[in-house]
Each structure stands twice: as C-alpha cells, then as structure tokens.
From TrEMBL:
Database matches in PANTHER family: L-2-HYDROXYCARBOXYLATE DEHYDROGENASE (NAD(P)(+)), L-LACTATE DEHYDROGENASE
One example of a Gene Ontology biological process annotation: lactate metabolic process
Keywords associated with the record: NAD, Oxidoreductase
Gene Ontology molecular function: L-lactate dehydrogenase (NAD+) activity
Residue span(s) of domain Lactate/malate dehydrogenase N-terminal: 11-95
Gene3D superfamilies with a match to the protein in the record: Lactate dehydrogenase/glycoside hydrolase, family 4, C-terminal, NAD(P)-binding Rossmann-like Domain
Organism: marine metagenome
Keyword Nucleotidyltransferase in annotation: no
Full protein name: Malate dehydrogenase
InterPro entries the UniProt entry points to: L-lactate/malate_DH, Lactate/malate_DH_C, Lactate/malate_DH_N, Lactate_DH/Glyco_Ohase_4_C, Malate_DH_type3, NAD(P)-bd_dom_sf
Sequence ranges assigned to domain Lactate/malate dehydrogenase C-terminal in this UniProt record: 100-262
Length: 273
C-alpha cells in the first residue's frame, strides 16, 4: 500500500512452491527461525541448518543460475552450508552481514557525533556475530579520519569502544525490543543494496560474507570482507591492510566461525565432505 506514496510500481505474489522461483535472477534467503530475547545467533544452528538444506535443494533445482543472498542466522555458517548443499558457484552465493553491521556502526557514530549518517564511511569485517570487527581506522566522518576526531577529543576512546560493542550487540538490541522476532527492516535494505549491485552491474565495494580462497591468509571459509559485486556476482575480494591488532581481532572472529562450522558439520557430517 505504500507504493502509491513512495511512487514505485511492483507486483507481489506469495507461494510455497519452489517451481515458482524458476529462472530467478536474484534470490534472497531469509528462511529460518528468528532469535528470541536471550538467544545468540549461534543458538539457531541446528534448527536453521535443516531449513537451509531444504531451501538450497529447491533453488538448485529451479534457479541454479541465480545470485543468492543469504540472510538466515547464524549467517556465516548458513551461507556456507547453503553453498555446500546447493553446489552453486561460490561467487554467486553471498551472505548479508557487513553492510548491516557497518550501517549500525555508522548510525551509532552519527548519534554520538551529531552528524548526518550519510557523512560517515565505515567498515565492519569478520563473522556476523559477537566477534565482528568494527574498524575505526578505516572510518571517516565528513572525509576526516575518525581517529583524528578521537585525538582532538571530540570522541573519547571509551565512548568509541562502547560504540564498537553496541555495533556487535545491534541485533540483540532489536530482538530485545521486539521480544517476538529479530531485525528485518535494516537486513532487508542491506539485501536490496546487494541485489541492486548485482542487477545493475555497479561494481560497488560492499562488506559481505564471501568465500575466501587464500585472501587474508584464509582458505575455504565464508567471512565478512569488502567485495566488489557486479553482474558476475562477487567479482573481487578487496584485501585491505590490517594492522596487528586488527588482524588479531579478525582472526579471532574467523576462529569463531570455524568452530561454529565444526558444530554444523557434527550435526550434518555431509558438510565436511
């Protein structure tokens, strides 16, 4: 009903038949059980793994050439499981994580500094969970490095760390307020941003959960990194230069993803093949 207000034309249809997604260009996967207050994303592992397997098999059969964006939590493991189950090319399967996490980081900084959110550039890497890595060193406010504002006393290190932590807890904050569900507006907007980059061949750098084949010294796992998305899906993974502390935090986040993947593989041994 909002289409007449916002001035866009679109047709919606609902279905429970995978045949209706035949030859889709883009598929955004949100299927899964949402978090409840007190739950972490990881608590959803066993339940959502079964759901992702079913979805992957349906997409493999009816839309094997689609660009697939996975939003289901725990994100990094679910997107990796989806790729395994579907056997779709890894460059055509990505996870929505970093865009959402970075947008939360930007929002909290804008509230703290009282500047428009559009004036902030920010990056969050790593797993989409409690160990995600906000990167203040790569953050700019109106073109000025964030850390310079810290040096000038416009933002204390203590406040910055609290913003970093609030970014990590951003999803849980929404779950607490909703009580019976998890975030959906911001994840939806993030997914659409990724779909637009693919459909319009924008070659835009976006932080997403992508398959790593040696980048950042990591092999055979999905994790949040800056990537270029265009008409071929993930066309390039950008390797930014991390300092020692950033590398340590990033690898700690990767280790958390690996441990959760091991847990998923124990639930379904076929994933380890």
């Amino acid at each position: 009903q909002s289409s007449s207000v916002d001035g866009f034309n679109v047709k919606f249809s609902g279905t429970d038949n995978y045949e209706d997604i035949k030859n889709s260009d883009v598929i955004i996967v949100t299927a899964g059980v949402p978090r409840k207050p007190g739950m972490s994303r990881d608590d959803l592992l066993g339940i959502n793994l079964k759901i992702i397997k079913q979805v992957a098999e349906g997409i493999k059969q009816h839309a094997p050439n689609a660009f697939v964006i996975c939003i289901t939590n725990p994100l990094d493991v679910m997107v990796m499981a989806f790729q395994k189950y579907s056997n779709l090319p890894s460059n055509k399967v990505v996870g929505m994580a970093g865009i959402l996490d970075s947008s939360r980081f930007k929002l909290f900084l804008s509230l703290e500094l009282n500047v428009p959110v559009k004036e902030i550039e920010a990056m969050v890497m790593g797993g989409h969970g409690d160990t995600m890595v906000p990167l203040p060193r790569f953050t700019k406010v109106s073109g000025k490095p964030l850390l310079e504002l810290v040096k000038e006393g416009k933002l204390s290190n203590d406040r910055l760390e609290k913003i970093n932590q609030r970014t990590r807890d951003g999803g849980a904050e929404i779950v607490k307020f909703l009580e019976k569900g998890s975030a959906f507006y911001a994840p939806a907007a993030s997914g659409v941003e990724m779909a637009s980059a693919y459909l319009n061949d924008r070659k835009k750098m976006l932080p997403c959960a992508a398959y790593l084949s040696g980048e950042y010294g990591i092999e055979g796992i999905y994790a949040g990194v800056p990537v270029i998305i265009g008409k071929n899906g993930v066309e390039k993974i950008e390797e930014i230069s991390l300092d020692d502390n950033e590398k340590k935090e990033f690898m700690n986040s990767i280790d958390s993803v690996k441990k959760l993947w091991e847990a998923a593989s124990n639930i379904d041994p076929s994933l380890s093949k």
